[in-house]
TrEMBL record, chains A, B:
Highest taxon, organism lineage: Bacteria
Lineage: Bacteria, Bacillati, Actinomycetota, Actinomycetes, Streptosporangiales
Name recorded for this polypeptide: Pyridoxamine 5'-phosphate oxidase family protein
Coiled coil: none
Pfam families for this protein: Pyridox_ox_2
Amino acid sequence: MNPLSSTDRTRVRRLPERSSADRSVLYGILDAGMICHLGVVVNGTPRVIPTGYGRLEDTLYLHGSTGARSLMEGPSQDVCVTVTHVDGIVLARSVFHHSINYRSAVIFGTPQRVTDTDAKLTGLRAITEQLAPGQWAAAREPNRKELAATTVLALPLSEASVKIRQGPPSDDGPDHALDVWAGVLPVRQAFGPPSPDPLLRPGIPVPGHIAHRVTS
Amino acid sequence: MNPLSSTDRTRVRRLPERSSADRSVLYGILDAGMICHLGVVVNGTPRVIPTGYGRLEDTLYLHGSTGARSLMEGPSQDVCVTVTHVDGIVLARSVFHHSINYRSAVIFGTPQRVTDTDAKLTGLRAITEQLAPGQWAAAREPNRKELAATTVLALPLSEASVKIRQGPPSDDGPDHALDVWAGVLPVRQAFGPPSPDPLLRPGIPVPGHIAHRVTS
C-alpha cells in the first residue's frame, strides 16, 4: 500500500511521534468507527456535523442527510472528515500530564456527489455495513424513489493523516515520588441487549449478525 | 435559564423535531462528554480536530494542545465545537430508514485566550474535571512554568444548538409486514479496570473517584 501523503495540511506538527504514515492504520481507524465529524465552511465560518460514513478501498462515502445543505446542493467544496476513538483516560500525577489515549484520522478533500445508480448503491451499502455489518443483506434495499431522495458523497482517501496516543502517563521525574495514583482508565464502546421495535411482528428473532455484537 | 438562541447558523433546518431549545439539555450533552470536535478554517479550508474541553456555567473551555496552531497563536477567529454521543444503532426493515440514536451539541463562536492566572486555573480545572472528575484535587496542580506553557481558550455558550434522535426505527407502513428484525442496538461508553502506570510506586491504591467509574 502507498504510505499516506504528507501535505501542508496533513503534516503533524505537534508531537509528530504520535503520527503514523501507514495506510493500514488509517483503514483500521476508519473501519472501527460508526460516525465521523464532517467539517465544512459556510459563509466563511466553520461548521462541524456528526454523520455516518462508510469506507470501500480508497473511497470514503458520506451520507446525504448531514445537515450540510450547501454540500448536498451546491457546487463541490473542500471538507475535512475526522474519525476519533477514545481508548483511555490518562491519569497522571500532575494535572499538566493528564491526557487521552486515542486514535484519530483526519481526511481532507473535495467530495463529489455520486449520481450513477450502481455507484450510489455501492456507497449506501458501504455506509450501511459500516454502521451495522450484515444489514445490507438482511434489510430491504432502497427502491428507486428512496435512492433519488438520498445524496451520497464520495471522498478519495488521498490526503489524510493519523494520530495516535497510547500508553501510560508521562509524568516528570520528580513527580514519580508523589503519593498519587497514576495510570490509564480504559474506555471502549459497548453494545447492550437489542431492543426490539414495539411494532416488530412476533416470532422474528434477533439475527446473529446483530446479537453477536452485544458486549453485555 | 435562557432558552438557546436561534440564529441563522443554529436553526435546525433538517428534521427540526430533533432539535431542542432547552439549555439544560445542552448542559447535559456537554457534561456527559470527554472530547469535542473543534472546527476551524485554515487558509480557507475546514479543519476538524478532536480535543478535550470543560464546561463551567455558560463558558466552554478548550485546551491549548489542539494542533490548531493558528487558533492558539493568531488573532481570535470563529470556531465550531461539536460534542456527539452515539446512543444506539437504529436497525430498520428497510436500508433507507437505518439511523443512529444520538445526542449532539453544536456551538458557534469566537473563543478568547485566557491570560489571567486565576482564570486560566479555573479553565484548566474545568477541563481536567470534565475528563476525570476528582483529579484536580488528587493530582499536583500546574506550576508557573506549566501554566505558561498551556493555552486555554474560553468560548461563550451563547450560540448553540442541540439535536437528538432517540427511539425505534420509523419504517414505512408496508415494510412492517417484512420478515426482518427491527429495533435498536444500544451503544454506550464503558470503562474497564484501571491499568496502573508501570512506574507507579507500590502501595498506592486506585482512588474511589476513579474506581467507581469502572463498568466491567
